[in-house]
Design goal:
globular, about 100 residues, mainly alpha
């Protein structure tokens, strides 16, 4: 499981800077996001919830995306299809959310 890589991937897909995501997640600065993404700090669950809220995704979706790819290949076909559906829904929500942020 790689939480930092997942945060970075979702942030970049939302076209947000670390500072912007930090602000949307109610952190004092983007430094926390930088530390999480680099692996120098592991976000507590409450931090993950705030980040997920800012990115408009559920914590379940976040943790599913945080699994290493080789772990996902060992899932049943039903679970793989579920994850594909989650990713599709998240993509549309992230795009919608980033438009809201950039349009102010």
């Amino acid at each position: 499981m790689n939480l930092g890589r997942t945060i970075k991937h979702l942030r970049e897909n939302a076209k947000l800077t670390q500072q912007e995501l930090g602000t949307l997640s109610n952190f004092k600065s983007g430094t926390s996001i930088s530390l999480f993404e680099s692996g120098h700090a592991i976000p507590r669950f409450d931090a993950v919830v705030r980040i997920c809220t800012a990115l408009n995704i559920s914590t379940t979706e976040f943790y599913l995306l945080s699994h290493e790819p080789e772990d996902l290949y060992n899932l049943s076909i039903e679970k793989q299809k579920y994850i594909q559906g989650v990713v599709k829904r998240m993509s549309s929500r992230i795009i919608s959310r980033s438009k809201q942020v950039t349009n102010g």
